[in-house]
Every structure is written in C-alpha cells, then in structure tokens.
Design a protein that fits this description.
- The structure is a homodimer of 373-residue chains.
- The first copy, chain A, is of the alpha/beta class and 373 residues long.
- The first copy, chain A, folds into 3 domains: 51 residues, 434 Repressor (Amino-terminal Domain) (Orthogonal Bundle); 123 residues, Response regulator (Rossmann fold), CATH 3.40.50; 140 residues, Rossmann fold (3-Layer(aba) Sandwich).
- Helices cover 41% and strands 14% of the residues of chain A.
- In chain A, helix 6 links the parallel strand 1 and strand 2.
- The termini of chain A are far apart.
- Chain A binds a DNA duplex (30 and 30 nucleotides) through helix 3 and helix 5.
DNA sequence: CTCATCTACCCAAACGTTTGGGTAACGTTG
DNA sequence: CAACGTTACCCAAACGTTTGGGTAGATGAG
C-alpha cells in the first residue's frame, strides 16, 4: 500500500488486507452446481429438473408432481443453481444476447438510449452488448461481424447511414435487426420524430420574431440531421420565411463541430442571423462558444436552439432551449421492436414525439434592428 | 411508409422496399458451418480441423501435415467458418466475456473509459458487457449477479464504493475482478492519480493569488471525490492556505449537483470565495450556472476548475480549466489488469498521471480586493 | 530385418442443457 | 375386467467444441 498516510488517515481509508485469490476456480468460485447435481441429489432425472425449473410455478404438463416440483425448486434455490447459458444456447440455438452498435458511447444521446436498452432487455431476459463504430463504415462491418460471431440473436443498430448497402446486406443474410435513433426508410426503427422536432423549432423562432436564421445541420449521412433540418426548413418556408442553402451548415455532432460551424456562419459576408438552430445540443454549445468569442451574447444578440435536451441543456450558464427527445424510451422501444422481429413480425417504424423546451437562450424576442417584419 | 413527401423527395430518401425476412433461420442466416462440416468435406476428423485452426500458421505439434493444414484453412475461410463461442465455452469453461459495471454510462467519463475497454478487450479476444448500477448498492449486486449468471470470466467494476462489503464478498467467492476509475485500497485498480490531480489544482489556484477557495467535492463514497479533495486540501494547507470544512461541499457528480453546491457556497454568510474547485467537469458547469445566476462572471469574479477534461471543457463558452485524466487509457489498463488477474497474478493498482489544463475560467489572477496575500 | 521413433491422423468423451419420445403404474369408464 | 387416459416420470440424443489418448504406417538406427 503506497498511500499518502496523511489523507488516508484523515478520510478513514482502511486496508482490508489484500485479496487471497486462488484463481484456480471459475469466476463464481467453487463448484458450479448443475442440473445433474440437483437430479442426483433428488433421485430424479435431469430432464425432470429442467422441466420443473422451466414451468412457471404451475407444474408443466405432466412433468412432475407438485410435491417433486416443490422439492426441486427448493433445492435449486438452496444450492443457488444458475443454469449455464452457453449450454442452453448450444442446445436451443438462441443466445438471448442482443448486439448494440453505436457511433460512440461517449455521445450522451446514445449512452442514454443504451441505458433504456439495458433496462428493457434485462426485463425480457436478454443481455446487451455494445460496441462503438465511430461512424466508420469499415468499423461498422467489423463490429457487426464480431457480434454475429458471438451469435447474438439480433442487432440494434444505432449508427445507420442513409447511404451504403450494409443494411440491405444484413437483410439478405437474414440477420434480425432494428435501427435506433437514426432511421432509414424501409427498415424497422425506433427514433424520435425528428421532422416534427425541426418543425417545432421553426415555429418557435418564427413566433419570436426571427426572420434571419441559420442551421447547424449535423452529418448528412444521419437521418437525425437530415430530418431535423428538413422539418425546420419545410416549416420555415411554409410560414413564409426565406432561408438559403448557405445558411445551412453541415458539421459533426460534437462541440468542436458546432464551434466550427458557428464560426463559419459568423464569418460569411451575409447579415448575421438572429437565431441559430443546431440539430444537437453539443453542437449548440459549440456554437455558443463561437458567439461569445465574437462578443455576442447568447439569448440577447443571437438565439440558440439545440436538440435532444440532454441533461446539460437546462443547467448551462445560459440555459439552452432544446427539443426534448425521449431517449431512454427510444432505447426501450428498440428492444421491443427487436423482440417483435425475432418473433417473425415486421414491426412498423416507431417515431416518438418530441417536445420543445424554451429556455433563456431563445426566450427573448428577436432584436428589433435586424428583424424584418 | 408514412413519410412527408416534400422533404423525402427533397433530400433524396428512397425506399428499398421492405425487408423480406423469413426469420426461420439464425441471426447469420442459412446453415452455420461447423467443424464437422469442414471435416466431412475434407475427409478428415473434426478434431484435426480444430487443431489446425487453433495452431498459428505453424502446424501444431503433429496435428496435421502442412498440406492438410492448408486445405483446412482454405476451406474454412472459403465457407466463412466461425466457431461457435458457446460450444467452445461449454467445453473450455471460459467464455472470453468481461463484465463491466458502471454507475451510469451516460456519465461521459465512464463512457470514454468504456470505449477504452471496448478497444482493448477486442484486441485480446474478449467481449465486454456493460451494465448500469446507478450507484445503488442493491442494483450493483443485481447486475453483478446477472453478469456472473452469464458466466463472464471476470469483472471490471467502475462503481466501487469505499464502504460496503461487496468487494470482500466477491473476493471470498473468488470472482476475478478489478476496479476502474474508483479505487479501494487493497484491491487491484486502474485509476487516475486523483490525489496528484487535486494537488495540481491547489498549486495552480494558489499561484494565481487565490486565498479564499471552496471545493465541490462529489460523493463521499467515491474515491475519486475523496482523493481529489484530499489532494487539494493537503496541498493547499501545506502551501499555507486555510480552508475550513464548511468550504467543502459534497454533491452529486452531475450538473444539477454542481449548481446546487454552487448555490450553497454563494449563499453561506461567509465571504465569497474567489475560486471554486469542482472534482468533476459537470459539477463545474453547474457551478458556473449558479455563479452566472448571481451576476458573477466566471474567470473574472470567480475562478472555476473542473476535473477530467471532458471534451466539453475546452469548448464551453467560457473554456474550463480542468485536470485531464487519461480516461480511455484507464479503461485499457483495466483490461490489462483483469487479464493479469485471470492469469492468477495479483497486479498492483495502476495510477495514471493527470495533467492540468489552464483555460479562461481560471486564467486571470485573483481579484485584488478579496485576495489576502 | 528388427525395433524405436516420428508423423499424421482418428476416436471418444465431455461440457450442461433441452426435448421428443417412451413407459410403468394408477384411476376411470363402460 | 378390459380398454383407455392420465400422471409422473425416465431415456437418449442432440447442440459444436476441445483434448487426452490412441494407432497405422513411414522413416531411420543398429
């Protein structure tokens, strides 16, 4: 123990005395008890034990007498029997494993969706695996292959690209999968209704008197980016607004990308917009940084709106207006959809409703001097 | 397809025509090719195929002739043979599965560590599982049991509490595990050297002329919180600074917690500190919010320092000074340590070096009127 | 030419389940 | 009391690997 005694003492650390691992055994120590063990102990056949343990408290059709069933269950719980999932998988040809693939788990949005998956899959007896693809097509393939090599029952794909034939290929190979967060028409998916989300933002900014706006649009290969932008543009124009293609800047989904896009918007010769819609909270934060660097105050000089309403948005020094998307629910829904697919159904895409939360970053009316009206 | 045609057309979406899944087959479609298939095709025994496929290009001791080995390998790759891991596990009693348990994956810090784990474990042929415990002791137990039921070879525990007997219990049950991010004396762990990190911050603030400081300390059950705070306090006092217990506010690790703690610090009757050290970037961001609500400007009126140097820190509107911890490396190191434990070794705790990045939030010298000198 | 040593394989058992197909024993019915 | 159902089980064969222990034939030494 090389602890600094001063604070170790101060703060009450104590050394329980190193671990005495023998490491000869499996992860769960001692002998693992098997069906056969239970059967021998009880003087019945392993198959009987198996059947009893699989029947929900009502004894399975003629599997065993109520009395035997009771004895079996009792001994099983007393000995802490836990079935070997690999053995069961081998026999049943189903692993109860779900593969989840995301661009990066360090994207808060995906992380929260994964929490939903974790929860929902545990509830239905599945375990989930996650892997990061960094949105790199080659890595996507590699990771998917890894998951299939592990014999997952199905995939939840959180990094779908609008282009690329990966999904068609998976379909051809009859791999059960659903999309999450990003959708691609024709495949089952659980997403936020991003078109509606974009529309909400357009209406809000229009109502606040903004007439000159810019969009930080995200990555063009992601439906989230495309849909949010499209929803915004459609609504904006249908309200009578004008916005040119130059006012739509594509960028990465992170803070750095948002800052860059913000700089680009401010650098363009055109009149400065009075509002910026970033299709992602982190991009919005980056844009806020760019605005501040230019001596502009967010919420007064320029309104900023983000998307996803991550936990950060409400707590920022200047709280950020954002479209709330039910991220955990999207994860949970994805699990339900993949279950359906595994049952052989062809579920419709699920689009969960977004909600706009207006906060200080866009709470003020558009500055008069620039507002057209 | 219930797409809004206007944008669907605009943006070039096209419907590849629903998937034609039959779902009679396993996840990877068609027949999965087995060792036996290869053997039959080649007129050799499955065991021969197995041995060949396991020997690294040099044919294993008398397993097969070079010619046969070549034929085996060729057919295997031609048919896309992929060994069934559950069958192998059943036989070898090792699953090549690692269980990872974290408080929440939506904590960016843990998410990045997990990315390191994902990478490193793939390299050594392991797959990792993550589950969230929400720092709830009961949930920790439940999730650990779930992972053990899946027969993981070992655990990486990212939510260790300084109190509670869970670790001792795991040791007794001879479950191989290592700690990550948070340490507990006496157990193998991969962490940032948080004591040093705290010291760096104390030195920095002292040098900038601050004499009245406060600490947002995090959760007292986490070594990260305790060590960073202790490192700070020790160094601060050894520099001649004074700081009372009231100036150390414990809080949750998120933005909301940081804001609350910030409010508490500002509300206390005592003279306002000129600097605040939050042991976590998100808590720091929350504190920045609280400061702004009180009409104070971060970096001018009050310095703020965070910890972990998450990707956000540098990109915030007011860039945040933060202690960089090598999060991905910590994850990778955890994987190495668990490998060692699985080999029967007893690895020493690894403490990775932190680095301080000074940014605008603490770049100015302490305001003169309050500085004591 | 015999005996020992390789070489290049094959054989079979085992890992822990699940599940289709028995079958004795018992009770009921006509 | 024969025929027929039930009940409460047992049996055995898989699932796809891995691995300790063969062995027939070729090669080499003496």
């Amino acid at each position: 123990m090389a602890l600094k005694q001063s604070w170790a003492a101060d703060l009450g650390y104590s050394d329980p005395g190193g671990q005495e691992m023998d490491m000869k055994e499996k992860a769960d120590g001692g002998r693992t008890v098997t069906l056969k063990d239970l059967a021998r102990e009880l003087g019945v056949h392993p198959s009987t034990v198996s059947r009893v343990l699989h029947s929900g408290s009502d004894v399975a059709k003629g599997a065993a007498s109520a009395a035997t069933a009771e004895r079996v269950r009792e001994l099983a719980s007393k000995l802490g029997y836990s079935p070997d999932p690999q053995a069961a998988s081998l026999r049943t040809r189903r692993t109860k494993l779900l593969g989840v693939i995301v661009p990066r788990l360090s994207d808060l949005v995906l992380a929260i969706m994964y929490e939903g998956i974790d929860e929902a899959s545990a509830e239905v007896g599945y375990s989930a695996f996650v892997m990061n693809s960094r949105d790199d097509p080659e890595e996507q393939r590699r990771k998917i292959d890894l998951m299939l090599a592990r014999r997952v029952d199905g995939l939840i794909i959180g990094d779908a690209h609008l282009d690329g034939g990966l999904l068609q290929e998976l379909t051809d190979r009859k791999v059960p999968f659903v999309l999450m967060n990003r959708r691609v028409p024709g495949y089952p998916s659980a997403t936020c209704d991003d078109v509606v989300g974009g529309e909400l933002v357009a209406s809000h900014l229009w109502e606040m008197g903004h007439r000159q706006v810019a969009v930080i649009a995200g990555e063009p290969y992601a439906s989230t980016a495309v849909d949010r932008t499209a929803g915004f543009l459609d609504r904006w124009r249908s309200l009578g607004g004008t916005i040119s293609d130059d006012d739509v800047v594509w960028s990465s989904f992170d803070t750095a990308g948002g800052r860059e896009a913000g700089e680009k918007i401010l650098a363009s010769g055109k009149p400065r917009p009075t509002a910026i819609f970033a299709v992602n909270d982190f991009a919005a934060i980056g844009a806020m940084g760019a605005l501040r660097s230019h001596g502009l105050t967010v919420g007064r000089d320029v309104a900023v709106v983000g998307y996803n309403d991550t936990s950060l948005a409400a707590e920022l020094p200047i709280p950020l207006t954002s479209v709330h998307s039910p991220m955990a629910d999207i994860g949970r829904t994805a699990v339900q959809l993949i279950q359906a697919v595994l049952r052989g159904e062809k579920p419709e895409p699920a689009r969960l409703e977004p909600t706009l939360y207006v906060r200080e970053s866009s709470a003020a009316r558009a500055p008069a001097e620039v507002s057209a009206t």
